[in-house]
Amino acid sequence: MFGRRPDQAVRKLEGGAHRDELRADGTTAAVIDASFTVEPGQIFVVMGLSGSGKSTLLRMLNGLLDPTAGRVLFDGQDLTALTPRELRGVRSTRISMVFQHFALFPHRSVLENAAYGLEVQGVPREAREARAAEALELTGLAGWEKSWPDELSGGMQQRVGLARALATDADLLLMDESFSALDPLIRRDMQDQLLELQQRLKKTIVFITHDLNEAMRLGDRIAVMRDGRIVQQGTAEDILVRPANDYVASFIQDVDRSRVLTAGAIMEEPESGRPHAELVAEAPATVTAETPVAELFAPCSTSGVAVAVTDGDGALLGVVPRSRLLAALGEEPKAEAAAGARGSGKAATAPPGPRGAKKVNAGA
């Protein structure tokens, strides 16, 4: 809550008051009833239009803003109960943040900027520069250590910001519209790099964006916000195929479904009575359940036989005939009632991530 008498405003909301009523009294309810869990090793994307509350939500996760009500649990520790000194310790060692506008020091070299978080921790110069150099190499900036920020392109400056966050080896990365200030091609390159780094490092990431295609591309799970509330949570496929309400349905209407939907989402049961090995042998192509639908066009266009979908051991999971592919691309998503709908605003449990990664629970 921002404004006058925030505790009183919370009680009004709990009593059923509308957000607009509070604004008339000089109070803004920035985030309302936002409860969710980020599993270890996930990229959890929070998306919404400007003013939806997503950046406020992110800043509560590392204590830059104190929740008026609710808790933030990080690996079981309640961050809202920490003293300012304890919270600074958590922020300097376990939670890193990548900002939208780079936030580089113009009077420090690239290496010094990348090492800044370690300098705050008190790491000796030789050790912090070695770790910063490793982080710069990870982000494709080896050889630029002695350059100044104004000698770099926008995309390169954002890589320095990412390297600074990685150098601290924090458990959790918070990324606040980190790519939105970049040109489209550079932005896509940064998305590629983040996904590549995630394959290697398995970080837990909370990523804020207003770009739906970016959310669909990056997010293991996505939360859609509107007017301070999370209106739907789920995977990209959940949200695309089963939007919780008309607002989400209108939000996703221009998404390229062929890049989001996978073979596993549209496959059907194989023909009964025929051996699975025979069906796989006849198929023009064999794909995994995670293969994007866009990659099925070529094999489906050259053969009337269904494409086979198999698991890692080659066992048949299902088939995608040409008719099923065309039907899936032509289907319009239908909004479901929030109550009981898969991917609704209720928190859902995802498979556990890598050992040693940290879980974040938030409720505000």
UniProtKB/TrEMBL annotation:
User: Its domain of life?
Assistant: Bacteria
**A Pfam entry, by short name:** ABC_tran
Region annotated Disordered sits at: 333-364
User: Keywords in UniProt for this one?
Assistant: ATP-binding, CBS domain, Nucleotide-binding, Transport
Would I find Transport among this entry's keywords? yes
Q: Does the keyword Nucleotide-binding apply?
A: yes
Which residues are the signal sequence here?
A: none
From start to end residue, where is composition biased (Low complexity)? 333-350
Similarity field: Belongs to the ABC transporter superfamily.
- For this entry, the protein name equals ATP-binding cassette domain-containing protein
User: What high-level taxonomic lineage is stated for the organism?
Assistant: Bacteria, Bacillati, Actinomycetota, Actinomycetes, Kitasatosporales
